[in-house]
Write a structure and sequence with these properties.
mainly beta, Immunoglobulin-like, 4-stranded mixed sheet, 3% helix, globular
Length: 219
């Protein structure tokens, strides 16, 4: 069973995400759609910073609302040519409204890190990469609902102030290429728990890479 509901009424809700083997899955994004027009007490950020450090995007997954500004900062001593494109099935569509490309010079020993700002105007998942370093991968989830939380190390996404009524729970993960079926539920007075299981086992995040001679030459 990909999903089981322990309680179906919740003013607060915990969604636990596991992989195919039943292990806790961090960096999944749980999104809840409701019929309410209310907003969370702690809304999704309108701005975020994604660092390029040791040839990694940090954080690996960033969750924001539409219209947000993302600052890309290169902390490495070599250049990065950051690109953003639609992730998943959306990459095969004609429109890539959040697509971009930018080049950031490497940080000098005594200089400040170079940064550039990108607007994320439309909902969707943006795949991050680097034209110079193909191993660099990250994601930005521009959520179409204000109720979106990234799972922690234990695979939990905790929602504390959800509105009452019908809702739909959806889970995204970078390794889950085929979307899981959304789970309907009803939010009410009783704290609830939902378990959702991926159909894949995500690969472990790679260790920080060491620069090659080419990296040093372009840095």
């Amino acid at each position: 069973m990909p999903a089981t509901i322990t309680f179906c009424h919740a003013a607060s809700l915990t969604v636990n995400v596991t992989d195919k083997d039943g292990k806790a899955t961090p960096d999944a994004v749980v999104m809840i759609s409701t019929s309410s027009v209310s907003s969370p007490k702690n809304p999704l950020p309108k701005a975020a910073t994604i660092a390029q450090t040791n040839m990694q995007f940090l954080p690996a997954v960033t969750v924001v609302q539409p219209g947000s500004k993302i600052t890309f900062t290169n902390n490495d001593p070599w250049d990065h040519h950051v690109r953003g494109s639609a992730a998943g099935a959306a990459q095969f569509g004609k429109n890539d409204e959040n697509g971009f490309a930018l080049r950031l010079a490497g940080k000098s020993v005594f200089g400040a890190a170079k940064s550039s700002v990108v607007n994320m105007d439309k909902p969707g998942v943006v795949l991050l990469g680097c034209h110079i370093h193909g191993s660099m991968v990250g994601h930005v989830v521009v959520s179409d609902t204000p109720w979106a939380v990234k799972t922690d190390a234990n695979g939990n996404a905790v929602f504390a102030d959800l509105p009452d009524g019908a809702a739909t729970v959806k889970v995204w993960h970078a390794a889950q290429y085929i979307d899981l079926k959304p789970v309907p539920t009803t939010l009410g007075a009783t704290p609830g728990q939902i378990k959702m299981q991926l159909t894949v086992t995500p690969p472990p995040r790679r260790a920080p890479a060491k620069p090659s001679e080419y990296d040093k030459s372009v840095g």
